[in-house]
Amino acid sequence: MAAALFLLIGGGLLVSTFLLREPPTPPQHEPRQRERAAAVTPVTPPPAPEKKKPLPRLAIVIDDVGVSKAPIKKLLALRMPLTFAILPRQRYSTELANVINEAGYEVIIHIPMEPEDINGNNPGKGALLLAQSDDTIRKEIKTMIREMPHAVGTSNHMGSRFTKDYDKMHTVLEEIKNSGLYFLDSRTTADSVAFKLAQQMGVKSSSRRIFIDNKLDTQAIKNELRRAIRYALSQGEAIAIGHPHKQTIAALAEMKEAMENAGIELVPASSLAR
Q: String of b and e for 38-53 (b: at least 16 CB within 10 Å)?
């Protein structure tokens, strides 16, 4: 009896022990690798938009503005991005500066300077002369700038003698630089030091390439405009200077469409100052 009881109790303990044991952990297996990776089609990024090469640029400057109003109104009516170089202290200088600025066109001060033959070529009121002191020159330039507040730049009127003088041009360019304006060398003489000196001094500046109306003939002026276009196309940019003559206005009107379709961009002169 005692033996049977012992077996019963012992068996129960064995069963309890078996039932209380945690079930065996099933063996772990590495995840099955795909026999063959799915083919990946490379994605070709869309081509970057092609940058358009900038067009060659041509600036046309109209000098000697301020004497008469009628030609300027005709030039504005052409709706071309011309730059107007205004002579100081002329009858219509201030009025035209305001009109041109309000129409959205660029105004620069056409500073009169001493020519080689001052007796045969009067540079006009307020002209800068080699005989003047530096203080006088500075005062004249400050007055011109004050009287023409819309101006963004300057250029020389005549000055075939003055622009050859290093010291006097240094004084002029120093004042122009202090005023934040640019300088366009009209190059009325091949011996001008103005542009080179301006570059050395860090004055924003540019240099004239072609005079379009030395010969007052409409066809001749059109030929010079074509030459300016060719130069801009070959060199990337060019500055041409003309005057408010009726022949010049006629040539610009007749050449407007051709210039717009010539593969160049007509720009204000300030765009070419560096």
A: eeeeeeeeeeeeeeee
